[in-house]
Design brief:
GO molecular function, one term: cyclic-di-GMP binding
Pfam families: PilZ
Protein name: PilZ domain-containing protein
Order of helices and strands: EEEEEEH
Oligomer: single chain
Distance between the termini: 28 Å
Largest sheet: 6 strands, antiparallel, barrel
Domain PilZ: 13-99
CATH architecture: Beta Barrel
Number of strands: 6
């Protein structure tokens, strides 16, 4: 699970008032994609993010930049792609480890 709020910064004075929950579709140490009902995001917006990584106790706090927004016809949600622009090395390692462990589980399940 992940949460975000629009970051207030110079040139973009309207930040979020609260955190919005999203559904993570894809996650890597460089960024990810998520589904949200929020339709007022703009390409280039900076987002404060809190990401709960499965298997880890820590919550990753980082900043992402919106790269792309798509609206699939089959849903009322928006698919938003971001790249991390402010994330620590420890957080990147935690994401990489979680992704590797998830892939190992998928491989083990598909072999049985």
């Amino acid at each position: 699970m992940a949460r975000f709020q629009v970051k207030q910064y110079k040139g973009h004075e309207k930040g979020s008032t609260g955190w919005d929950s999203v559904i993570l579709k894809n996650l890597s140490a460089g960024g990810g994609t998520f589904l949200t009902y929020k339709k007022d995001l703009e390409i280039g917006s900076l987002l404060d993010l809190k990401i709960d990584v499965p298997g880890f106790i820590l919550i990753i706090n980082c900043v992402g930049k919106v790269l792309r927004i798509a609206k699939p016809k089959s849903t009322s949600m928006f698919c938003t792609a971001i790249k991390f622009v402010d994330i620590g090395e420890q957080e990147k390692e935690a994401i990489n480890t979680a992704v590797e462990e998830a892939l190992e589980q998928v491989n083990q399940t598909s072999l049985t």
